[in-house]
Each structure stands twice: as structure tokens, then as C-alpha cells.
Specification:
The complex is a heterodimer of chains A (about 160) and B (about 240). With about 160 residues, chain A is mainly α. Chain A contains five helices and no strands. The longest helix of chain A is centred in the first third of the chain and has 29 residues, at about 25-55. Chain B is an alpha+beta fold. Chain B is built from nine helices and seven strands, in the order E-E-H-E-E-E-E-E-H-H-H-H-H-H-H-H. Chain B has helices at about 35-50, 110-115, 125-130, 140-145, 160, 175-185, 195-200, 215-220, 225-240; strands spanning about 5-15, 25-30, 65-70, 75, 90-95, 100, 105. Chain B has a five-stranded mixed beta sheet. In chain B, helix 6 packs across helix 9 (about 225-240). Chain B is elongated and about 60 Å long. The chains are: A mainly alpha (about 160), B alpha+beta (about 240). The interface of A and B includes residues 10, 109, 115 and 128 of A. The structure holds protoporphyrin IX containing FE (HEM), iron/sulfur cluster and FE2/S2 (inorganic) cluster. FE2/S2 (inorganic) cluster binds near residues 58, 59, 66 and 78 of chain B.
Chain lengths: ~160, ~240
């Protein structure tokens, strides 16, 4: 076995294998996009909690006060104002793309991990195409891309009215 | 490709006894019709630079010893023609995910050890039968078809080198070993199903596979290790498949 690699080398290697999908076919793109979308959703999830809790008022937002009604209204308006920024809107549209892709492709991966929708073992002939990349798997992958593009168009239109 | 043209090979050089710093060296090689990357490397060794280290044996995609990274993809040098690369410039590096012994020669010990880990042989419960087999084990054509694809493996480590999970988790057995596990697991002559499951059932075992399918993409023998791994997981999750 190779000697232990240091943390930085492992990180560089990890990023390289995650982010350089080309040359290895469609399934490697799926792997990379699933990773990126998964990480984006996780970061968004954290940012979403932070944003709703801390942008205005800090932790005091969560405490019950006598003027709770007015206070909540003010926090709501200020948060909306803070977030009404085309940059955030564009970010949400991209997150719409990733969430849609991650969900459908995630379901595809579940099924594949269960051995569903794959081809059967066959004797390899010259120019053999791997059965793991079955037409079903490819169709589901492209369905997740199509769904994600639809989500992107839908959200972009909702924010910027591009289709109007 | 015309008979008189030339290619430029940019070759990874590394000599541990010589300071151990990797570098690249360029060689111009005249090509002929049907020439493989292995032919070009042998040409370099015989005519331009005898210090270049390569490993090969059969020259016909059977022994699995000439695996290397050619223009970015793990391939067998003897099974890759210069013309199919459609480039006048060829980058030749050793296999990824493995330690390098010298130049283009990767150390396959860890790869072979992982193969051994899955006990790639038939196991019979009867110890006497295992040591001194006397019976004939009959099998139908259909039973053979379930594993014969995976028995085509030549242990070239191309899949191991392509796997993104291996590159960040050195305790993962890798596509070749896991495919061989399934090859013996699903063989009707084998009697060690529970034991085989125990070997790979773990967070760094078979569940680690993310189905990036790069192994199946690069396998020169059409073994499709990713298929074997998913079929094995199906067995482990839903119980043994019947006949
Ligand atoms: C409908 C909902 C979801 C489904 C069906 C789903 C499914 C999946 C699947 C199957 C994988 C790939 C596992 C593998 O590569 O073997 C994955 C990866 C990932 N998911 Fe999700 N997921 C969902 C929601 C989420 C959410 C809400 C988050 C974040 C909070 C998330 C974060 C991640 C991350 C970080 C990865 C990458 C890790 C990896 O590649 O294994 N996912 N997801
Ligand atoms: S499964 Fe294919 S790529 Fe992997 S070692 Fe065997 S022959 Fe080589
Ligand atoms: S030399 Fe035997 S596989 Fe290439």
C-alpha cells in the first residue's frame, strides 16, 4: 500500500475526481452532478436557516415578546427587503435546477443500487456496451436533466418574467 | 493514417533512485498502420532511450500487465492503436490510484491483495472435498451465463485506476475485487455465500460504491464491474435470488 497521504493531497484528489467528469461517459457526469447538487442543497439548507433566523434581529427573533405581532411583521418586511435582490433570485433559480435534478437522479440511483433497471450479464462481444448503462438508466438520467431544466425555466420566469 | 507519419509521445518519467521527482519526456516516433501505443513505447526503448521502464507480456490484451493512462484514460497499451486516438500528440502516464515503481510501471500489490481478500475461488463446505476434490460439479448453460461475463477479467487494474471512490478511499476493495466477489457468489458450485457477504458488508465495503460506472466504461474485456456490484447489492438487500 502507498504511504499515508496528507490531508491537502487527499482534498485535491477528491476535488479532482468529483469535478472532472469528462471522458468517462454519462454516468460519471451523473456522479459529479449528484455530488455538486447535494453539496449545493446542503449549503442552501444551512444558509436558509441562518437567513431566516439571523439576518434581522438575531436569536431574539425566537423569543416571545409583548410586541410579538408588530415585531414579527417588521422582521418579515425587513427580510423580504434584504432578499429582494436579483442575485438571490438567480441563486434560487439555480437551486431549483439542482433540487429537481438531485431528486429525480437520486431516485434513479436508489433503483440502480437496488439492482433495478440494469441489463443482464451477457457474454462480452467486441465493442460491447456495458449493461450497467442500460437504456432505462440513460432515460432516467435524461429525465432528471429535463425536469431540472424545466425547474430552472419555471423559477427564472417566476422571478424575472422572461416568458411573458 | 499514412505509413510515414510521426507522433509525439509525451511520457511520464519517474525514478525513485534518482531523486524521485516526476518529469515528462518527449519522443518522436515514426508510425505504421496498426501500430499500438505499446509498439511505440517498445520503439522508444529499442531506438531512443533504453532507460524507459514499461511492463508488458502478451501484447494481445490477455495478460493485463500493460495498463497505463493514455491521453487521460486508463487503457491497455497493447490494445490501443495510435490511429484510434486521432491525435499527433499522445500523453502517456502510469495508472492512477496506485503507487508507481518506475516510469510507467504501477505497483499492483494493493490491487492484487484486494482481489485475494474476496477469496476468488470456489469454496466447498466439506473440507476434504475442498482440499482433494473428487466430485464433478455440474452446471447448466443458464447458470454459467450468470457469472461468465465477470470471469473474463484479466486483472489489468484499469477499472481500479478509473474508480473515483478508490482515489479517495484506499480501504475500498474497488470494482475488480467486488465484481469477482459476485462472480463466485452467484456461481452455483460455490457454498460460501454468507462468508462472502461478510467480507464486503461495511461502510468501506460494497456500500461505498456510488455507481459512477467509470470502471465499466474503461474495462477492455467488457466485464462491467459496476453491474456486478449493483447485482450483488440486490442480493444483499433482498436476499438470494432463486434459480
Ligand atoms: C428527494 C430527496 C433526495 C433524494 C432522493 C436524494 C438521493 C440521493 C442519492 C441517491 C445520492 C447518491 C448517493 C450515492 O452516490 O451513492 C445523494 C447524494 C447526496 N445528497 Fe441527496 N437526496 C435527496 C435530498 C437531499 C438533501 C435535502 C440534501 C441536503 C441536505 C442532500 C444531500 C446530498 C449530498 C451532499 C450528496 C452527495 C454525497 C454522495 O455522493 O454520496 N440530498 N442523494
Ligand atoms: S474488471 Fe476489466 S478493467 Fe477491471 S481488472 Fe478486470 S479486465 Fe481489467
Ligand atoms: S501486454 Fe498483455 S495485456 Fe497488454
Amino acid at each position: 500500500m502507498a504511504g499515508r497521504r496528507n490531508g491537502l493531497a487527499v482534498l485535491v484528489e477528491a476535488l479532482r475526481t468529483w469535478l472532472v467528469p469528462y471522458r468517462y461517459g454519462l454516468e460519471r457526469w451523473s456522479y459529479t452532478l449528484q455530488r455538486i447538487s447535494g453539496v449545493v442543497i446542503t449549503l442552501y439548507f444551512v444558509a436558509h436557516i441562518v437567513e431566516t433566523g439571523y439576518v434581522v434581529g438575531g436569536p431574539s427573533v425566537w423569543t416571545i415578546r409583548p410586541d410579538a405581532q408588530q415585531y414579527a411583521e417588521r422582521v418579515w418586511t425587513e427580510t423580504i427587503k434584504f432578499l429582494s435582490n436579483p442575485l438571490f433570485d438567480a441563486g434560487l433559480a439555480i437551486i431549483g435546477f439542482f433540487v429537481a435534478f438531485h431528486t429525480i437522479n437520486g431516485i434513479r440511483l436508489f433503483l440502480a443500487h437496488f439492482g433495478w433497471g440494469l441489463g443482464r450479464p451477457t457474454r462480452p462481444e467486441p465493442m460491447h456496451r456495458p449493461q450497467s448503462m442500460s437504456p432505462t438508466q440513460r432515460a432516467l438520467f435524461w429525465a432528471s436533466i429535463a425536469f431540472a431544466v424545466f425547474a430552472l425555466v419555471y423559477t427564472t420566469n417566476a422571478f424575472f418574467g422572461v416568458l411573458a | 493514417m499514412s505509413g510515414t507519419s510521426e507522433v509525439l509521445l509525451r511520457v511520464y518519467r519517474y525514478d525513485p533512485s534518482n531523486g524521485g521527482k516526476p518529469r515528462y519526456q518527449n519522443y518522436r516516433v515514426p508510425t505504421f498502420r496498426g501500430m499500438t501505443v505499446l509498439d511505440a513505447l517498445i520503439y522508444i526503448k529499442e531506438n531512443l532511450d533504453p532507460t524507459l521502464s514499461i511492463r508488458y507480456s502478451c501484447r494481445m490484451a490477455s495478460c493485463g500487465s500493460c495498463g497505463m493512462t493514455i491521453n487521460g484514460l486508463p487503457r491497455l497499451a497493447c490494445f490501443t492503436q495510435i490511429s484510434e486516438l486521432r491525435s499527433k500528440y499522445i500523453l502517456v502516464q502510469p495508472l492512477r490510484n496506485l503507487p508507481i515503481i518506475k516510469d510507467l510501471v504501477a505497483d499492483l500489490d494493493e490491487f492484487f491483495n484486494k482481489h485475494k481478500l474476496v477469496k476468488p475461488y470456489l469454496i466447498r463446505r466439506d473440507v476434504e472435498e475442498q482440499e482433494n476434490p473428487r466430485e464433478q460439479y455440474r452446471q447448466s448453460e443458464e447458470e454459467l451465463e450468470r457469472y461468465v461475463q465477470f470471469a473474463y477479467c484479466i486483472k489489468c487494474a484499469l477499472c481500479y485506476s478509473a474508480c473515483p471512490v478508490v482515489s479517495t478511499d484506499k480501504s475500498f476493495p474497488g470494482p475488480q475485487a467486488l465484481a469477482q466477489l459476485y462472480r463466485y457468489y452467484i456461481d452455483t458450485r460455490d457454498e460460501a455465500r454468507e462468508e462472502r457477504i461478510r467480507i464486503v458488508d461495511g461502510a468501506h465495503g460494497i456500500w461505498r460504491c456510488h455507481f459512477a460506472d467509470s470502471c465499466s466504461q474503461v474495462c477492455p474485456k467488457g466485464v462491467d464491474p459496476a453491474l456486478a456490484i449493483q447485482l450483488m447489492r440486490r442480493e444483499m438487500m433482498f436476499g438470494p435470488s432463486k434459480g
